[in-house]
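Design request, tokens follow.
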């Protein structure tokens, strides 16, 4: 078979191991793999490159994606969709592995409905895709953010300050939650829970009385009543670029004003989306890439390779993109054990 593979949406560590999984498994079947460059833009513009074993031999430990990525929506304009379908014929593709987050996977589902066979592979540092326990990129991202939080602890302690760390994650709080729990933060603000500033000041005062510093983790996607943030731009799929809202800066200023504790903030932004993938992300991504090729040979189209427990399984793309996977109540209960 001639199989295409693309990486769409925001990059994350693990994309290269997933590509490696696709190429090696396809080679076992005797298939040819065509890398589509720049995500769905490459399908519209016909940007492709053959992928052989030697192209993926040394990419296990490399962040980003050797194929490049964009946030292009091929179904936004009818003419783009037409170009994509023409290019599929020109490139002689018989199936496609689409590696991406909710936007890429939604486009993958639509393309399957147009009659072209696609299998999805979930990725995102946000960990917000339904029907999979974890997405690759998340573990690496949280590991970097935990490091950042631990660095902030040093200054917090030396200067008896409150330090606020703003992390990405869009409208799901997984990154902030895991960073805060793993890094021993004293308060965590995530989009799934209404912001209660009074409650936060109260907890911080108790914590500060005990250890003379405190650490707060804030997710970029929280809504703060009354906050006038910077006007955020939107990407190709209409998502606001939340980092520009500046919730970390706002929360830090409110803490200082309302508690009297000297407070500073840091925004790590895209630093948490690059660098070598952790072992967890490498193995997960590789297994998903291998599974996607198996699924193509079994004719399981409109489906996504997914992690359930320790097993790689198949789920419907339709179910995976139906809703964002948000932080559940039991996690919020766990966090509260540490607010004291
Ligand atoms: O979806 C991944 C993510 O890193 C989000 O956490 C963040 O809000 C967004 O992408 C940033 O997008 P961009 O890289 O386009 O600025």
């Amino acid at each position: 078979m001639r199989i295409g593979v693309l990486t769409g949406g925001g990059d994350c560590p693990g994309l290269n191991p997933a590509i490696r999984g696709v190429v090696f498994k396809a080679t076992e079947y005797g298939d040819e793999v065509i890398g589509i460059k720049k995500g769905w833009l490459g399908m519209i513009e016909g940007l492709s490159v053959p992928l052989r074993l030697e192209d993926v031999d040394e990419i296990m430990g490399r962040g980003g994606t050797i194929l490049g990525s964009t946030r292009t929506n091929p179904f936004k304009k009818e003419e783009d969709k037409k170009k994509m379908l023409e290019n599929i014929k020109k490139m002689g593709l018989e199936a496609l592995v689409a590696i991406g987050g909710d936007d890429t996977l939604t486009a993958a589902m639509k393309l399957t409905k147009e009659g072209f066979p696609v299998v999805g592979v979930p990725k995102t540092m946000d960990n917000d895709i339904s029907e999979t326990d974890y997405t690759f990129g998340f573990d690496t991202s949280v590991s970097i953010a935990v490091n950042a939080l631990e660095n902030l602890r040093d200054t917090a302690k030396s200067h008896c300050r409150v330090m606020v760390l703003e992390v990405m994650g869009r409208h799901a709080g997984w990154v902030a939650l895991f960073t805060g729990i793993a890094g021993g933060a004293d308060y965590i603000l995530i989009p799934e829970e209404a912001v209660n500033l009074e409650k936060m000041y109260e907890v911080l005062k108790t914590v500060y009385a005990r250890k003379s510093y405190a650490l707060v983790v804030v997710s970029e996607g929280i809504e703060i009543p009354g906050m006038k943030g910077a006007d955020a731009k939107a990407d190709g799929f209409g998502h606001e670029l939340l980092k520009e809202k500046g919730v970390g800066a706002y929360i830090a200023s409110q803490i200082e004003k309302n508690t009297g504790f000297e407070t500073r903030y840091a925004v790590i932004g895209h630093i948490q989306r690059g660098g070598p993938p952790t072992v967890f992300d490498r193995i997960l991504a590789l297994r998903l890439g291998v599974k996607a090729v198996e699924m193509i040979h079994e004719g399981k189209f409109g489906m996504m390779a997914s992690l359930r427990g320790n097993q790689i399984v198949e789920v419907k793309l339709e179910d995976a993109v139906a809703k964002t996977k948000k932080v559940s109540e039991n996690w919020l209960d766990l966090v509260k054990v540490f607010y004291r």
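Comment from the thread starter after seeing the answer: thanks! The radius of gyration is 21 Å.
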